[in-house]
Amino acid sequence: MTYPVNAAVAERTLAHNVFEPALDLLADLTPRLTAETAVRRFLQHDLQRALRTILPWTAHPDPHVRRLASETTRPRLPWAPRLPALVADPTPALPVLDALYRDPSEYVRRSVANHLNDISRDHPDTAVATAARWLTDPAPTTRATVRHGLRTLVKAGDPQALALLGHDPDATLHVTGPEVRTPEVRVGGELAFRYQVTNTGSRAASLAIDYVIHHRKADGPLSPKVFKLTTRTLEPGEQWSGLRRHSFRPLTAAATTPACTAFNSRSTDAPRHSGLHPPGALTPARPYGRGNSGSSAWVTV
């Protein structure tokens, strides 16, 4: 493993103001164990100087080094310190993404999409504008990269992101449900609910239809998590319905808190709305389109 070596390179070279040769060494080491955490030390020390060395990595023959260029400049890279300068203004690193969004390696493109998603959390307009620019000169893979990069904005019902991906933010819908079929669910069991979405407008509507589970956290408040039902087009007057089973099988070692878990459906573009209600109660919650629907269920250990 080269992680201790990467860290030592950053520590020792910055102490002696050895900059470009150290970054070149970390690029050489990254195919063995990616060095993005160590490279971020240089970005924090002198952003513009580091970017001048990082940008040429986008043309490197090794996809690990090309990915390093995108991954190390992510404003909000998980498990690493944030880069406050790029959180405040992501534009200095955009030339890196512009050079890589058409990359032949999916490994590299996934990093580009995750970088764009980081940007969307603080600068949604910049993320959408960047994605729109890429779609004017796309590779066959670009739409998938953009879709993954705008996923947080889509989940939030951002009208610009939805429109860019071809969804209709002004669709007129009638949503029935979710209707709970299992008002009490034990951990390890399944929450079953039915739903129906009708296009009541006069034109076909491309829809992203999600549902939201509001989990009770150990310290009290509800924490929403969005899950996808489908992406589809409904013709005028067309209905789409079904039965969904949502598993509550534990996937981590985290403790589970008995709680009333509220949820609601969403389609295309409406603000979030949620609440905590007695077991089995049917309560209104605004979905993405124009219609009301919501429900809750009691989850026990």
Structure commentary:
The chain is α+β, with helices and mostly antiparallel strands. It has helices at residues 3-15, 20-29, 36-45, 47-54, 63-71, 84-88, 94-100, 106-122, 124-135, 142-149, 151-155, 159-164; strands spanning 173-180, 184-186, 190-199, 205-216, 222-234, 239-247, 259-267, 295-300. The chain has a 5-stranded mixed sheet, with no helix packed on it. Strand 4 (205-216) and strand 5 (222-234) form a beta hairpin. Helix 8 packs parallel to helix 10 (142-149) and helix 9 runs antiparallel to helix 10 (142-149). The chain is elongated. Residues 269-294 have low confidence and may be disordered.
Distance between the termini: 41 Å
Structural class, by secondary structure, is alpha+beta
Provide the helix percentage: 25-40%
Largest sheet: 5 strands, mixed
Strand content: 15-25%
Give me the number of helical elements.
12
- Which ranges are low-confidence, i.e. pLDDT below 50, for 5 or more consecutive residues? 269-294
List keywords for this structure.
five-stranded mixed sheet; single chain; three-stranded antiparallel sheet; elongated; alpha+beta
Summarize the structure.
With 301 residues, the chain is α+β, with helices and mostly antiparallel strands.
SSE layout and pairing:
Blueprint: H1 3-15, H2 20-29, H3 36-45, H4 47-54, H5 63-71, H6 84-88, H7 94-100, H8 106-122, H9 124-135, H10 142-149, H11 151-155, H12 159-164, E1 173-180, E2 184-186, E3 190-199, E4 205-216, E5 222-234, E6 239-247, E7 259-267, E8 295-300
Parallel strand pairs: 2-8
Antiparallel strand pairs: 1-3, 3-6, 4-5, 4-7, 7-8
Helix pairs in contact: 1-2, 1-3, 3-4, 5-8, 8-9, 8-10, 9-10
